[in-house]
Every structure is written in C-alpha cells, then in structure tokens.
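Methods: example folding runs. The two proteins below were folded one after another, and each record is reproduced exactly as written to the output file, sequence line first and structure-token line second.
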Amino acid sequence: MKVFITGIGSDLGTQIASLLEQRPTVTAIAGVDMYPPRRYLARSRFFMSRYDDSERIAEVIINFSPDVIINFGVYEPGARLNSLRALNATQACTTGIIHAVKEISTDHDVHVITRSSVVVYGFSNSHTHDETSPLSPDTPYGKMCRDVEEELTNKIPYVTIIRTAPEIGAHVPHPLARLLTLPAFPVQARLPFSRDIGFPIISPRDAIEIFVRAAMEVPREDVRHRVLHAACSNNATMMMAAREGNRIPLFTSGVGFALAKRLSFIAGAPIDPHVEMFIRRGMIVDSTSTRMYLGITSQDSPTEIIKDLYSGAENIVDSSSAAEVPK
C-alpha cells in the first residue's frame, strides 16, 4: 500500500509518516508541504510546494499514484497560517487532491482520509454531537471544513472524514494551545451556579493513532463515505487549564472579552472566532462510535493532556510494538 500525505511538514503530519514507516504493509510513503518535515523520516519522500499551488500538489500526487491519501492540508486559522492564507492553502490542497484522484482512478481506487474539525457542527446549542449530527457551522473555520468535506465527498468515491477536537500538545501550534500557555488568559464570566460544559480536546498521540488506523481500514462498497471523531470522552475547561498550569484566569464578558482578545493578539496568541466560541459557549462531542469502530480502548484524559502541555512533554505515538519493516 502506498500512502501520500498532504501537510507532511506539520508536526502531526510528520508523526503520521513516522508511524506509517513502521507498518510493513505500507510499501511507500510520500508527502507535500510548504515546509520540510519536523523530524527525521527514514523512507518517506518529501516534495516542496507553495501553499497555494494546486497544480504542483496534483502533479506530485499523480506521479506517486498512492492507494491512500491522508489530507492534513486543512489549515486551521491562527495555527501555521493566518486566516486568508489558511483558506487559500486549504482550497489548493482540496483542488489538487480532487484532480489527482480523478486521474489516478482510471487505474485504481484511492481512499482519501481528510482532516476536518468538530467546529462544523457550530456553537448555536449545547446538545451532544455525534458522527451523524447535522452540520451548522457559524465560524469561518467551520465553513471552511464543511466546504472541504462537501467537495471531497461529492467528487471522490471513497472518503473518510476525521473531525478533530483541538489537538493540544506542547509541540503542536494549535491556536488554543498557544493561548493556554500565556501567563493569563480570558475565561468567560458566567452566572452563579451556571454550568461550564467545556470543550473537547485530544492529545496529538491519540489523533495520530486515529488517522493511522483509519488509513489501514479497507473501504467498503456499502460505506463509501465515513465520518469519525477524534476527541476525548470528557471535556476540558479553561478553569481546569488555569489550575493545572498555575495561570491567571481573566473573567471577562462582552467588551471585556474583546479587550482580552486584543491583548492576546499582541502577546502572540490570536483568538480566532472558533477558538473564542470554544471558550465562551463550549461544545459536547460524542466519539463512542469512532472508538468502537477503530477498536480504541484507551485515550489520554483532558487532565493528562493539559499537564503534558505545561510540562512540555512530547507525547508521541509509541511505535515500539509495531512490526519491523521487511528488508
């Protein structure tokens, strides 16, 4: 099996490639990104491309002719790129993948696994979202992810969508993780006795494992498009992060929150609309079906993830038990 990774230069994309290198059934790995991989890869090929060059992305995918494409080229605003560049880069990756799969499909089927986000459900209510919940994005990033999902599922026969919660890790440039590392951060002021439902998160290790397990699954004719969740079974809260990291919670609302956003931007941790909604409204996501389908029996808890963030723990996937690649 040949696997191609868009966004292979990211920390998560590089770790996915590293883990796939330990799988003897994966005969070749390649990837494209605007930056080289973050760590040494023994047998993965890297192709450099501008973030908005869809023709270059399509060209290298067609020449490699993979069986599986893992699309990590869905760029979250405020992480590696600003909002406009994140949108352009995401659109370029999506366009390149669609064109490449159309060409390759004349020879063999291609299974596309794409990153998306739980923000596609929107923040207008507090009920629990599972993998079958309707989409109602109300932030730019949510709409971007919805558009990627619709384009891929409308034009590619076999697609697995993995809607991820914020991937919180010391070496992952997620905008929420960056915010939590500030000495003080905004916390939504709530009425007395009102419940903070919090928001879902996931460790980089668990997110990577879900992507790799999904890549190993053989698509079925009766289930061509599948949706998975990458999220903990329990939620985190801003107050939990403040306690674990000895940070100062700034209880704000309305105009006060707008001022806190400005100060956070100056401090190097911009709060994009979807991050603000995680803080102010929260979200509940059910990932039970995904864990059952992939056979996942344990995941890092929100408390463990937050502690690892503040301790600077690498928290990478343990591939020591993987079978050696045949020589």
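Second run, written to the same file directly after the first:
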Amino acid sequence: MKKIVFAAAAFFVLVDGLFTVSQIENVVITRLGEPVRVVKTPGLHFKIPFVETVAFFDKRLLSVELSALEVTLGDKRRIMVDAFGRYRITDPLKFYQAVGSEHGVLTRLHPVVLGSLSSVLGGVSLSSLLSDTRISAMNKIRDEVNSAVKGFGIDVVDVRIRKTDLPSQNSEAICKRMISEREREAKELRAKGVELSKIIKSTADKENAIAIAQADAKVQTLIAEGELDANKIYTEAFSKDKKFFEFFQTLETYKKSFLEKNTSFVIATDGPFFNVMRGRN
C-alpha cells in the first residue's frame, strides 16, 4: 500500500513538473509569483512541482481592437474612426512584469493608441486622410505608440484605420444639403429642358412655315408656267383655224354659264349663243 501511495505521489509530482512549449509560444516560469526564467525553446521542459508555475505567451502577431473614437481633424471636421492595432511580444519577461497577460496589455495599450490617434489626426485634413498620404499618419501613430509602450516588452507592428464615418448629426446635415442640391439641379435641368423645348418648337414652326411658303410659291410658279404654256398652245392652235377658235370659245362660254345647276337663261333661241346646240357653226 505504501508503494502504491508513493508511486501515485511520484506520478503527480512528475505530471505537475513537466510542461510542453510549442513553436508559437514563449514561457515565463514564476516561483511564488516572481519570474525566475524564460523558456523559448520548443519541447518538453521541467519545473519544480507545486512551487513554480508556467505562463504561456503567443509569439505570433496579435491584434488589439479599438473602440470607435470621434476625432476633430486639422480642417475642423469631426469624424468617427474605427481602428485596430497589431503587436508582437518581443520580451516575455518584461511583458509579464509590465502587464501580466494579453488581456492586461489590451487595457494598457488601448488608451495609448486612441490618444495617439486623436493627436496625430488632429493635424490631418479629411482629404489627406482619404488619400494615400494617410499611410504616413498611420506610421507616425505606430511610432508614437511604440515609444509610449517601450517598457511593455512588445513591438507595435501596425496601426490601421478600418473605417471612417461622419457623426450622426453631421451625416443628417450632409444628407439634407445633398437633397437640396439635387433638387436645385433637378429644377435647373427642368427649366433648361422647357427652354430647349420652346426653342425646338419655335424653330420647327418657323421651318414649317418657310417650307409651306416655299411650296406655295413653287406651286403658283408652276401654275403660272403651265397656264403660259397652255396659252401658247391655244394661241398656236387657234391661229391655224379661226372657226375652231370660235367653237372652243363658245364651249368655254357654255362651261362657265352652266356651272351652276339652277341657272336660268332668258335668251332668244335663234340667237348666236345657241348656234352650237342647234348644230350651226
């Protein structure tokens, strides 16, 4: 029984004394709360059981999410900035002594980054922030943060703005202004359209009147030319046969006289007017 108890105690001591370090971790060994050494080599390691404890720290790139911050820019415009930072633990011992854990560094790093954001962006205009020149501003923020957290055992690799937006009251004012501008532009376009419509209609009416006048003039010219040609033909024909001319003239007289259906004539039947009807010529 004693052997079993001893073996069980030895097993628990051995289990508590062994720990494994992966390739993505650094380890700080503490004894009664005080750090005694740092383990950076991957593999199986041993510590004093029940006396020493192990604190693991990630060697990879870590992120810190920042709360939205309202900033007044260099051109006096106010915007909401949504940013984040990336850092790496370079000195596990300093990191443990300064902040204790990754959650602790977030608490310490958060106000530092927000303060630097507010300070640097206070000298930048909105147009610069929305262009490629914002990279220099971000680098300046990163350098300021690195300088402020030098004793934390970390290296701030990058600080980036994920999104910028206008405060709600500014957005409403801008939307109203944009609506007013669009309404004004619409009125101007409608007015120009009405004016252009009147010009087109007036031009079309003028061209139509000119075309009709020109057509009427051409018709009258053609009629006059036709009548002139007809008169020439008649004259030539009549000059060759006098009786035919008299006969034709008589028919034209009948045509004009009998144009109306209800025309009445009081003329002697043996007069010259009815010679053609009686077969006399």
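Comment on the second run: The longest strand covers residues 78-89.
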